[in-house]
Each structure stands twice: as structure tokens, then as C-alpha cells.
Amino acid sequence: MILPAAKLGALFMKSLGKPLASRLKSHAAKHPRFREIIVNIAQSNHRFQVNLQRRIYGHDTGVAVHPLNPEKAVQAASDLLGEFIIFAVGGTIVILEVQRSSRSEALKEAKMRAELDALRERDNCAFYEIKQLTLRIEELEKSPKNGRAIWRPSSFGTSSNIKDISKEIQTLRQREGVSPPNQTNTTDKTPQN
């Protein structure tokens, strides 16, 4: 999304920069004070560029820089101001896009935080339920049933070996005379007429 918008914005600003530069030139021709300001900007920029190029190429920088003629100075200043405006608008577009992106990221982060809080709350509720069920199981194990304590496998909650638990359940069923699920006890059946 940012790439097409940035390209479109840059193209728009470039197309807007040329008419702006020509308007600055015509404005400079009509207003002498504005022309003087523009010419001074252009001459300062020209001196800076020439001295920079001399330093880069290793030439003497103490030599005087010839000033631009007024028409070239107006043209250079118009181009410079046009480029500055294009750069300023492009920079503003980039800043706005970064702010939009950071807001989007902040919303995503807030949503993830809310989901994490909901999961923590659900985890706390499940922990509380397990604790309540454990207390209820302990109460039931301590209470007598028909004069006997309720059976509790010794490995309940501590062993992950399912075979040992199922053997204990089978032993208990045989001792109590209870048939396994999905099987019928033949001794309990009464004939129906």
C-alpha cells in the first residue's frame, strides 16, 4: 500500500514542482525584493557547491567564486525552491505513513494484549475449578459409603501410566462384583414373561 501511494505522491509532486518553479520566476520578475532574496539564495548555494567540488577534487578553495548572472541565479533559486518543496512534501508523506503504520502496530499489540489477558483469565478460572474439584474429590473420599470409604487409586494424579490405572479399576470391579461398561452381568438378569 505504501509503495503505490509514495510513487503516486512523488510523481504528483514532481509534476507540481515545474509549474511552481516557473511561477517563482515570474514572481521574481515582478517583485524586486523577492528577486533580491532569491538571487542571494542562489548565489550562496552556488558558492557552497563550487567550494565543495573544489575540496572533493583537491583544488584550491581560496580562489574567488564567480557569481552567477541574475537570470541564471533566478533559474537556480527557482529550481532549488521547487526541489525543496518536493522534498518537504515527500518527507511529510513518509512521516504520515510511518505514523499510520505505528498506529496500526499499536492496535495489533493492544488486541494481542487483550487476547493474552483473556487467556490468562481463562487459565485462572480453570485452575480455580480444578482446585474446587480436587477439594470435592477429597471430601467424597473421606466420607463413608455403606460403611466403607470410597476407593481411590493410589496412582491417581501422580502416574501417567494408564495401564496401571485400568488394572486397578478391573481389580476393583471384580472385588465389588461390578461388570465393565458395555457388558451385561448375567447373574442380575431376571427372566421376563
UniProtKB/TrEMBL annotation:
<feature type="compositionally biased region" description="Polar residues">
    <location>
        <begin position="155"/>
        <end position="172"/>
    </location>
</feature>
<dbReference type="Pfam" id="PF07047">
    <property type="entry name" value="OPA3"/>
</dbReference>
<dbReference type="InterPro" id="IPR010754">
    <property type="entry name" value="OPA3-like"/>
</dbReference>
<comment type="similarity">
    <text>Belongs to the OPA3 family.</text>
</comment>
<dbReference type="GO" id="GO:0019216">
    <property type="term" value="P:regulation of lipid metabolic process"/>
</dbReference>
<dbReference type="GO" id="GO:0005739">
    <property type="term" value="C:mitochondrion"/>
</dbReference>
<feature type="region of interest" description="Disordered">
    <location>
        <begin position="151"/>
        <end position="193"/>
    </location>
</feature>
<protein>
    <recommendedName>
        <fullName>OPA3-like protein</fullName>
    </recommendedName>
</protein>
<keyword id="KW-0175">Coiled coil</keyword>
<feature type="compositionally biased region" description="Polar residues">
    <location>
        <begin position="180"/>
        <end position="193"/>
    </location>
</feature>
